[in-house]
Input
Amino acid sequence: MKKIFYFPALFLALHGWSCGVVQSVAVNSTSGILTYGMAALFEESDLTLAEQAIPGNLKLVEALYRAKDGDDDKLGTMLAQGYTGYALGFVEDTDPERAKTIYIRARDYGLKVLRKNKKFNAVFDEDAATFAQGVETFSKDDVPTIFWTANAWGNLINLGINDPELVGDLPKVNALMDFVLRHDETFFYGSAHLYFGTILATVPKVLGGRPDLAKVHFDKCFAIGDHKMLLPYIYMAKSYAVQVQDKELYLSLLKAVEDAPIDILPEQRLVNAIAKRKAKAMAARADDLF
Output
């Protein structure tokens, strides 16, 4: 104790070190709790409760991320996933412009993690082909971050489909999703197939759209998720069924969502509850689309 008293500089150094260690331990411990918290949110079926809870949880994750100076890939990926899910489930249907800003935030958190890969970062601003070569320097372990980053980026483009600058990034998003498709097509219930099914069904044939191939991707997504994840029904209805002008298919897909038990996939009650709300709104617009 006397040595500490007579050498205040040493005391301050030790004090700072101990605070840093305590903070690091606290952040690491809380990160584990947040993982369980994320799982609990996905299991929530009460949309009002979830909508009120998610923003506060995301700000807590951001605080922890800053406490580690933005150098925690797990938290960065969690933020990309969390903000993407929040915008998709609770913002884009009522406030598309606000949803864009949230998707940008989600995308940028994911890109901050991915751009730590020096080879990828070096070609990030290059043409799509060179960008795709950079994507190949990742490994299967990077699939979660790549998926959630591409998901946010793709949703941003979807909301800004009339913005040439945003649409110009589509080949880069495709390269990221293609990586997921080739390295783990089952990730998040086959959602890379869902992405390509939606893209190929939405883009006009003259610009490369392929409704026939889109259906193959949707069918693969359904099979991987054992028909228990309901969002693919929503996206097949709003893209493929509308594109081929099949009203009967459109309504049958939405009815499948409405009729499915909320506990059909307990670990994804929230996502399925969101799908059910979207299905109800989409069914009311059927006559305007066909």
Q: What stands out?
A: The mean pLDDT is 89. DSSP finds 16 helices and no strands in the chain. The radius of gyration is 22 Å. Residues 8-42 form the longest helix (35 residues).
